[in-house]
Amino acid sequence: MNLSHPSAAAVKTYLTGLQARIVAALEEVDGNSFITDAWERAEGGGGISRLLEEGNVFERGGVGFSHVFGKNLPPSAAANRPEIAGRSWEAMGVSLVLHPRNPYAPTAHMNVRFFTAVAEGMAPVWWFGGGMDLTPYYGFEEDARHFHATCRDALQPFGEDLHPRFKQWCDDYFYLKHRKEARGVGGIFFDDFNALGFEQSFAMLQSVGDGFIDAYVPLVKRRKDMPYGERERDFQLYRRGRYVEFNLVWDRGTLFGLQSGGRTESILMSMPPLVKWRYDWQPEPGSAEAGLYSGFLVPRDWLA
User: What are the binding residues?
Assistant: First the structure.
């Protein structure tokens, strides 16, 4: 197949296969099956949401594929690219969020996506976006190092500069400005990416998507059976509140989905099932909870 020019069909084939492989790996960890919910969008397109709730390991996990299109770009998509305003568009991707029940097992997010905007008589504007990031509630250095090393290895074949750039982008993006606080320990993030041409940019996207299982599954296997009590569970639910705040206030993908008339249930399946908020709460100095803030929510080079 000639991939020197954008091929939405090739990307779609890869993405649907990626969703199936990730779901199979997670079902093996949890011992339960994901439900399948296929849906259609009135303006055009649809998707397949795969969801697990109240599993043995995952309190909630969602792995969604969507392929949607429309005639007018929503404001969130054209905010950084005003030249594409008014074009018809096509977007597809796989997005997942996993919320384990055990507070020592981290939440994980990953998405890979392809976007095209077209106008009659003009060359299409296309790009890839995505990445993955890790949100622990109790920090383990070896987990953070493994996750970041896997992200680095996924990008290494495509340029030495990509991992430092995409790591910094992730640190900057997954930051709650209203809290002046990172969401987690980061990972990699990129958007509007087409610098390598279609063939190599697509290959890079595949490397990132394929790397997720190796980056995350060993961590959840390592932590899922650790004993915990009410204190740890309470702190996990409190920190999940930050996850909700980020997704609803700052996340570009959530805004795009809602503004473009996407399916609300599928967009918001990333939300944790149980959350707590407290007024002006602070962790006890010297506690493991305080250690998350001082040792893990401060951006750092985990591979140094």
Answer: 95, 99, 109, 111-113, 148, 178, 261-263
Q: What residue numbers does the annotated binding site for a divalent metal cation cover?
A: 99, 109, 148, 178
Over the stretch 144-198, which tens digit does the pLDDT of each residue have?
Answer: 999 999 999 999 999 999 999 999 999 999 999 999 999 999 999 999 999 999 9
DSSP letter for each residue of the chain: ---SS--HHHHHHHHHHHHHHHHHHHHHHHSSPPEEEEEE-TTSEEEEEEEEES-SSEEEEEEEEEEEEESS--HHHHSS-GGGTT-EEEEEEEEEEEEESSTTSPEEEEEEEEEEEE-TTSPPEEEEEEEEEEE-SS--HHHHHHHHHHHHHHHGGG-TTHHHHHHHHHHHHSEETTTTEESSSEEEEEEEE-TTHHHHHHHHHHHHHHHHHHHHHHHHHHHTT----HHHHHHHHHHHHHHHHHHHHT-HHHHHHHHTT--HHHHGGGS-SS----SS--PPTTSHHHHHHHHTSS---TT-
Which one of the listed residues 67, 109, 146, 163 is annotated catalytic?
A: 109
Enter the pTM of the model.
Answer: 0.91
- Residue 5 known to be catalytic: no
Mean predicted confidence (pLDDT) in 224-249 = 96
Known binding-site residues for substrate equal 95, 111-113, 261-263
